[in-house]
Amino acid sequence: MSQTDEYLVENIGKLNRSDTVITDFKGPLTQKNREQLFLKKIQEFQKSKLIVTDRLHGMIFATITGTPAIVFDNSNHN
What's the N-to-C CA distance of the chain in angstroms? Predict the structure, then answer.
């Protein structure tokens, strides 16, 4: 566990790693289940106390949900 992770666990609580890329979905992607997957991800952000990200989508989702965020620059500056 990195020093950043340790600090977050000590000061925020449980640490949950997540990604906006869904890799465990099986089956055809339809308009209906696409919306359900999106809403599930938004709810995950809403339940969080803090978002730490280096991705544009993470920053946008944090803003949409009103969740505090720490945003770092990433290697491709996007």
Answer: 26
| This model's pTM is above 0.70 | yes
Whose tokens are 């209906």? That residue is: 32
For the chain, domain boundaries: 33-78
pLDDT tens for each residue of 16-64 = 888 888 888 888 889 889 999 999 999 999 999 999 998 999 999 999 9
- Contacts with 53 (C-beta within 8 Å, 6 or more apart), sequence order: 59, 62, 69, 70, 71, 72
Q: Contact at 8 Å (CB) between 50 and 70? A: yes
Residue 53 · residue 62 · CB < 8 Å: yes
pLDDT of residue 77 exceeding 80: no
